[in-house]
């Protein structure tokens, strides 16, 4: 909200016209963290999306930030029909990792 107000402020509008909303939000988060005594490394680490992180444990603000980052990565990697390297029926072979069997999996096979 603060980044949006800053961008829409008549005093700053001309200077921030070329700056994206997400960049302003990141800058605001870094400045807020700095004022709370956190290091720059800590602030930048919060922008990293960890695939093993449990997103259910995050507060609403942090979750919205992580979802925004995932949307950015998705849009960056997305291929549209008009792109020169677009392939309609792309087939990719993902190697299947060996999955460990759980004890409850073995037991349920016997019952059925």
UniProtKB/TrEMBL annotation:
GO terms for biological process: microtubule anchoring at centrosome; vesicle targeting, trans-Golgi to periciliary membrane compartment. GO terms for cellular component: centriole; centrosome; ciliary basal body; spindle pole. It is found in: Cytoplasm, Cytoskeleton, Cilium basal body; Cytoplasm, Cytoskeleton, Microtubule organizing center, Centrosome, Centriole; Cytoplasm, Cytoskeleton, Spindle pole. Keywords: Cell projection, Cilium, Cilium biogenesis/degradation, Cytoplasm, Cytoskeleton. It comes from the Eukaryota. Belongs to the CEP19 family. This is Centrosomal protein of 19 kDa. It comes from Seriola lalandi dorsalis.
